[in-house]
Write a structure and sequence with these properties.
9 strands, 343 residues, alpha/beta, 9-stranded mixed beta sheet
Length: 343
Amino acid sequence: MPDLSVIVPVYNMAKNGNLEYCISSLVRQTLQSMEIIAVDDASTDDSLKILREFEKRYPGRVKVIASPENRRQGGARNLGLREAQGRYIGFMDADDWAVEDLYERMVELAKSTGADAVGTDLSRVYEHTMIPAQREACNFPSQTGIFDHELRKAYLLHPGPVVTKIYEREIFFDKEFRFPEHMSYEDNATFVEIGMRLKHFEHIPEANIFYYQHEDSTTHSFDMKKCRDRMEAMRIMLRYAKENGALEEFREVLEYHFSNLFYRNTLFSYMQSDIKKDIGYVRKLGQEMVDTFPDFRQNPYYVQNVNDYEKKLINLHLKSAVAFMFTYKLKQISKRIRGKKAK
């Protein structure tokens, strides 16, 4: 059994050497007892060809799975989990990469402390580089140790992305676990389920993952499907939380996440995007929010973390979707005019 399996979902990442840079950073890892499971998610470019070349050059270290259908990132991760043999499981996006000794250090920390998950931080970059920029914290010292109620609450408040962590395999295999398929934001849907399974978390506070920013990434392209996927991801999260007692135990934290991801982020991303605006959708988004958590604006995390201007816009939206859209449109026009004058 290898110490670690790293699962890499791949879809159309051949452009600009992105895929080669990612997989190269994994095959160069100093951890010797490691397998890289690259899942080609029915790519239409040369991604599968590139992966087969790595598989041929690094037999036993790189394993390629070719999915006959596009199942999106969650589906590709599920295929990888089926084949993973490692004592620990990690995930990497196909356009990101890691410092060369990261996984050796993470596995050593997991073994020495008994942690069933170890996380690290990331650096947002705009080019292929191995020089970290400013660290973006994904987790915090206040979350580390053997979980009691307060530590688990702290972890659930800031769970961080799965690609910055390794997990003991039992997290995914003691009970049946599946990422949602055919949709984006699968991390949002599953962070509560994973967080409720953890018993002990440790953290390496360094920018060891390079999070590549480009126009094709999920965070830099937004359409109507992503709006609906983000909403559905949070519905999945909430169903799990209700069925397993997490909502009752951590209501304030999960109410805040729901209001932030299902509602606030979706609403403002939608309004800032080029999507043709639909008053019916904007109105239904607000209605489902208040139907689910009527008093979310009194949530202490909402009060603390949402700026006053957004609070005013949200209050206006929940009072009148028409007035909100008109006000937001005026704001965008005013911003464009100021930008032109500045030039």
